[in-house]
Amino acid sequence: MSEEASPRLREVMSVLVRHLHAAIKEIEPTHEEWFAAVRFLTETGQMCSDWRQEYILLSDILGVSMLVDAINHRRPSGATPNTILGPFYVANAPQYPNGGNICLDGKGEPMVVEGRVTDIDGKPVPNAKLEVWQTNDDGFYDVQQKSIQPDSNLRGVFTSDSEGRYWFKSVKPRHYPIPSDGPVGKLLGAMGRHPNRAAHLHFIVTAPGFDPVITHIFTPDCPYLPEDAVFGVKPELIAEFQKLDDPEAAKRVGFSSPFWSVSWDFRLASSSETISATR
Ligand code: BEZ
Ligand code: FE
Fold it and tell me: Using one digit for the tens of pLDDT, what is the confidence trace for 121-140?
């Protein structure tokens, strides 16, 4: 490499070539295997479009997305950790007052989620923005079923109140498969891996002065918790889901009994308390 190449590029390329050559020496691929890899990478690129990023999906199923995130969000203990963003986040989702119901298709088991946004010492963070999204009870995001689900089904934006509290209505999430109709899905199948994600709700929680949290809440009863297809599960993100058979409580929230109740606090680390890769 030329002396004029950026020092970072020289570092990245020399590490990559060193490890790539070590892998090739260990694997000893045939010419056909080398060409199958070229074909796989070509098909992965050809699968990409404005709304489909097959290379990020590849990074996800290899655990690389979670590793890059962990390197860049080293938070103090007690802070809510990040997990994978996924491809189905949509900016500028509808805003709801606290108590709003994001389930617009009426499918699934009703659920109330409530909790607080605090700093790592437990002090309330008012006016935090909570963006939430999840699949419907058939296991699809609204953007995957544009003319089938109502627009913005199961996504919304809430704001924490003066005591850092938030609450909303939805339905209990279920497990679902990542998009597996492309080369990444074929690779998973060839490896004998399933494409399923453990049941979760996505959140992005932001407040001025705090490191934005891109995270999930997982249900504790999902069989895919130990084998999430994209390695997104962290034990600190598994919530308690209580099934309440209480007609009075159900009436208060406008549901019929039984319904699911989830209590979940987000603890934000300040931007200065979070260590990222420094370049
Ligand atoms: C998701 O949770 O929405 C997701 C994450 C990674 C890949 C595909 C989907
Ligand atoms: Fe998801």
Answer: 999 999 999 999 999 999 99
